[in-house]
Amino acid sequence: MCVMASALGADAGRGRLLYEARCTVCHGTSVHLRETRKARSFEGVRAQVERWNAELGGAWSADDIDDVTMYVNNRYYFFPCPDSACGSEQASTRRNSKQSRVDRQ
Ligand code: HEC
Asked: Interior CA angle at 12 toward 25 and 41, to 5°?
């Protein structure tokens, strides 16, 4: 397990396990690195993770989605993680109040 992100609001090590268990059936690295990729920000990545979770039946909690977003972002996108997402343990509560800004596609 990756302990690097344990001081942050989300746990990328846990996110990796969730992602690998459920999401690598269809895609590995390439979908996240393609020229035309959709995610353009940390929140954009999160919106895609939310979307795929919903498409697959919506089993994940908001915390699970945060963890997977952190993992995917740390591994592929490298967008700056906003304080609202990574700054504290209250990250998911605070970010939820901003969710209307998230660009859903
Ligand atoms: C049924 C196959 C399938 C599964 C299962 C799947 N994906 Fe995807 N995913 C795709 C395809 C195809 C695309 C590219 C086309 C699109 O974005 O609609 C994509 C795109 C994405 C993107 C956007 C990449 C970008 O920046 O353009 C993210 C993020 C993503 N998937 C995350 C996930 C996560 C997280 C899961 C697990 C909950 C998941 N996917 C499960 C097929 C799948």
From this structure: 85
Atom of ligand 1 at shortest distance to CA of 39? 26
Yes or no: say if 5 and 70 are a contact pair by the CB < 8 Å rule. yes
CA gyration radius for the chain? 13
Expressed in angstroms and rounded, the spacing between residue 18 Cα and the centre of ligand 1 is: 14
The residues, any chain, with a CB within 8 Å of residue 80's CB and separated by 6 or more, are 42
Mutate to test the pocket of ligand 1, among 18, 48, 51, 64 (most ligand atoms within 8 A of CB): 48
For 53, phi then psi, to 5°, come to -60, -45
Give pLDDT tens digits along the chain (105 positions): 444 544 457 899 999 999 999 999 998 888 898 889 999 999 999 999 999 999 999 999 999 999 999 999 999 999 998 887 777 544 444 444 444 344 444
> What is this structure's pTM?
0.79
